[in-house]
Sequence to fold (193 residues):
Amino acid sequence: MKKIALATIAVITAFGTGAFAGTLHGKVSGVSGESVVYVEAVAGKTFPAPAQHITIDQKGLMFVPHITVVQQGTTVEFLNSDSVAHNVFWPAISGNKKLGHNLGTWPQGQRKSFKFDDPGVVSLLCNVHPEMSAYVIVSPTPYFVETDKSGDFKIDNIPDGAYTVTAWHEGAKSKSNPVKVAGDTSADFTLSK
Fold:
């Protein structure tokens, strides 16, 4: 009898948990190429920082990948794979110049890391090679995704509730919309320059 009761509780818990997590999908239009879609900060809720580090390489005089989206609190390692010295700096995070930072310059094969504790858009640059640029999008929640090339996106396992969801694209104005997630939810964004 005890085993049946425990099995019943496990089944109810499994179904109950699934009933409160939704999927947000949609399309970002008005721009070409990949965009980033993420759920803004949730009042009264904090999320543990990811333990896994992300690597951004400097290879072929480019940052690879060009766009990286991470959760707030993530440590990013910047690797120099080129045979020339590179620098990594950003003048601000989402326009806040107090959050600008310069990691310095280092030779091939070395790495420098930085923990991104502030959410927002980070424009990466290199003092040595001014043509180099990239972006780190720091999401305040673990609910984010990079769209495919046609702008389609899907974010799974978002707890049902009301959120502000933001779509970002390089060279366009970000757009934030209120979205109520309840099960399978659709939200589209049209961005412009």
